[in-house]
Amino acid sequence: MAGTQNSTGADIHAPPSEYYSGPLALKSAGINRSRSRNYQRFHAPADDSQSTLRRRGSIDDKSHHPRRLLIDIATIERAILEQEDTNGDYQITIEDSGPKVLKVPTASSNGNRTIEVRGTYMLSNLLQEMALAKDCGLRQVVIDEERLSENPVNRLSRMIRTTFWNGLVRCMDEAGIQKICADPKNTKPGAQPIIYVPFGDAPALEYYTGVARDLASLNIRVVRLPRDITPQYVKSINNQFGILTLAADVSYDAGGRLVYKPLPFVVPGGRFNEQYGWDSYFEALGLLADGRVQLAKNMVDNFVYEIKHYGKILNANRSYYLTRSQPPFLTDMALKVYDALSDPLRDEWLRNALSAAITEYHTVWTCAPRLDPVTGLSCYHPTGIGMPPETESTHFDHIVAPYAERLGIDVAEYKRLYAADAIHEPELDAYFVHDRAVRESGHDTTYRLERRCASLATVDLNCLLYRYEVDLASAIDLHFGGSMATDGHVSTSTEWRQRAEARRTAMDRYLWNESKGLYFDYDVELKEQSAYESVTALWALWAGCASQEQAARLVDAACRRFEAAGGLVSGTEESRGRITLLRPNRQWDYPYGWAPHQMLAWCGLYAYGYATVARRLAYRWLYTITRAFVDFNGVVPEKFDVVGMTHRFQVEYGNVGVDFKMVPREGFGWMNASYQVGLTYLTSHMRRALGALTEPEVFFERAGWSTDASASHTPASTPMPVPVFAMADARRLRGVTPLHCALEAALSPTDSPAYFDMPLTATTDDPRTPASPGSDSTADDGNTPSTTKELL
């Protein structure tokens, strides 16, 4: 979408680096300024030879021409903070009690007249824009008033696309290593930065040894890991926190000298300064939606590197995560990147990524200790020993205290002896196995998994592994002719379909609850289903392992249990249980909602024919984000209380992304992604309502929207706009499930090529093209057919 231009021809909504790089245009056409400060001579109309004089006003009236503000940053910043920031947090929010109006000089008057900037949203935008202008080295600047009053949906989407992603990029090169080495979890005074290099990566060892030498003032230590990284070794470096190297482009110049270029990647934000496991999948979806293909590809390459050198996709690339993985999404992540690549070598790149995923599947998720041989299902079960060292020093004191009391010693002494293996306590050992498993699940923490996680065949993990199996089956068929050689073994699509079918049968037997219409985790030790009702049940729709009959019951049950005012809640209040001082709330329980749960649910609901439900849930979630963005100085936090529709709460680990001065520069990784992807689910009517901050219930009532769980379409009548990735998913999974076979048949006219064989990058004239998140327009504009069936 072309940007709006001001009188100088500049794009009003350009990225800060462009908007604040041009000359300051202080002159306004049509005005002859006299030397008097009290009068201003205005040109008369062309047919009147007389010009007129009138008293200069102190405030510019609204005119037909957009107004521009002349800002001396130090002066206006001081004024706005002194007057409006009443709680002293360097943000302008609805919690501040200032008058919410500030007079600011206009550019057209050379600063002699003013206009009033009113309201929390415009004042906070003014504060943000001044901070961004300062970043560009400016002390004075002209800002278009329209930039301050920009539609909040457009502004937030633009900031994510042009500012937040850039703020989250890290690189382990010489320029970026100091920032990455800094670890807020390492609270030891004077801790030396450590870079751990895999045993088999000689170029990395050479490069980082050189970096440590060139940056001698940082006192970096480079450590080569052993060939066999055992749990005992990892425990031995518990007090030596360090960063783990990732992938790089490696070559040699004509003189044989190493040319080593570490790959940039995206981090979650806040205190999380590494590439995380499952965060990266959702961040990649947002990056792809915004056209940042290379960054998403780099993150896949980093995962392939981790599998090769560390044996698994890590929780994150820190030394204390070497024995722990996170929810596996590599196959879908790699395939979505592949779809966006134009590189002629992309088939070989995909083969390499899928080969790594196959290795991970066999050596991490479907072998001891994570595989339960009785059910054939998998559990989160990392191999680390003892107390996780990255936690706060007092985090486990309440757990250890009863054991210390039995021995008549204090907690600190007990922890020292336990860490040194001088004390053996099987109960405590089991507790830490489960605690580490909770962290591997990504859902740290929740009463759903507490003290039992390593014994649970969870719905979420087995849905992900089912998706691995069907992804591999379809990709081997589509791209490698039905068989693919990997490390001396030939994988066939047939064997992966058989694995998928075996897992689906086991999930139906152990995880599906016919009476409740939900999937539940299964305790392999107690041999019974958990009673905890979790929104992860909806992951079965994303994975495609539910039948149409199961899906109908699942959607009905899930909407009644998990749909809250601001989106999907993690679990039910009843499942969470009563909260007391001794039993505090957990961040992955009721009433909190998280971006991964929303995004997977939208995708699955749409694929199974519940587009209305998917759009409704997307609107709720995006409204919650947009409302906070408008009311709280542009904040994009890690999570929300979706029942109270707020990010202001006290819970374990706080809420990352809320602590900034004047302007947010990162947002939060998967929240940014959920916004960009979520916008592609909305119709133009919904997007307009979202920009006007129409509350969900008001919008649904006025628009006559259904708020039940009924199906809105069949595979033969898919409503527009088609969300981002939906076409590619359906094309890739055709033939794998009856659902996608039906989609293929319904969306492909008999006299044309298969619908899902059409290029994914269709022209803008194709009404089936998903709308860009940065665009105001969508396919549903009143003139476009409402279903794909009508198009065909």
From TrEMBL:
Q: Give the E.C. number(s).
A: 3.2.1.28
Which keywords fit this entry according to its UniProt record?
Glycosidase, Hydrolase
What is the protein's given name?
A: Alpha,alpha-trehalase nth1
Q: Which gene encodes it?
A: NTH1_1
